[in-house]
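Checklist before submission:
- one chain only
- standard amino acids only
- sequence pasted in full

Submission:
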Amino acid sequence: MSDAPESPPPAAAPAPEAAPPRPVAAPSSSTVAWLAMAVAVASLVVSVLLWQRLAATQEQLARQSADTAAQAVEARTLARKADETAQANSAKAAVLDTRVNELQAYRAQLDNVLQSVTRVRDENLVVDLESALRAAQDQTRLSGNAEPLLAALRTAQQRAQSSGDPRLAPVAVAAARDMERVRSAGMPDVAGLLARIDQLLREVDELPAINSVGKPSAAPAQPKQPAASQSQGQGEPRGGWSRLSQAFWAQARDLVRVSRIERPEDTMLAPEQIFFIRENLKLRLMNARMNLLARQIEAARADLAAAAATLGRYFDPAARRTQSAAALLQEVQTYTRSAEMPRVDATLEALARAAPSAPAVTVPDKGK
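Returned file contents:
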């Protein structure tokens, strides 16, 4: 940079002189009046327009206010109607609730009645089946024919299957099992057994007691003498001494009898005791006969066993009549041992368990 001094700024040029103001001409009075009049007219027009607009606004507001009032009245009317409708609906709802409750109560009662009817029907079915089975069983016992019992079992099986009750399903199974048991059971020939017992009753009075003495033998019949010997004198017939000796020997032989006695005390019975023993034996046989008629096989077996014991103890086992009676009594016992009355205890127990109001019970055996 140089150390030379700076040059001074140039001098400003002189400003031009202002032009003098022009004089304004003053408005005239008429002009002012016309302006004032124009302003007044304009103001009046504006005021009229504003007044018309205000009137239109007021009219619109009045109309809107009237509409609003009408809408309010209508709204109050609708509200009142809605209130009345709500009250009516509430009343209807209360009535409907009451009816619903009544219907529910009626339905509950109807369900109870239906359950009661179903239970009574099931109970009646069980009672009918049980009564039919017991009647058929008694008829079979009295007649000795198993067909009534088989028919009752088939009916019980069919009705139990068609009922649709699951509680009766075991009844159908038990009825089928009892039918097989009844078919395989041996029915006793009651008529033949009664005939044999009657024969025994007729022979009891002829049975020799164990301590009875044998009756003397009848004298042998004398042969006819020839006409030639009869024409001879009045002397003794030929062979008289031999016949006399034979009769004496027969009587002497009956006086002494040798036998083996198992119970010596039985030989000491008095004739009156033997009479009561015979009557007791008859009673035993008659009881067995009555039990066979009633189809009480077990009781008949017991009476026949007691009669066999009495026959073997108090009557002579070596006598032909005793042996024949013992053989006949043994035959009757054999038939009664092989005979068995059909039993339907399984079906009766299943019916007892199926009864709605009765607990399971054990059915007693009528044959015992």
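Reviewer check: The chain has ten helices and no strands.
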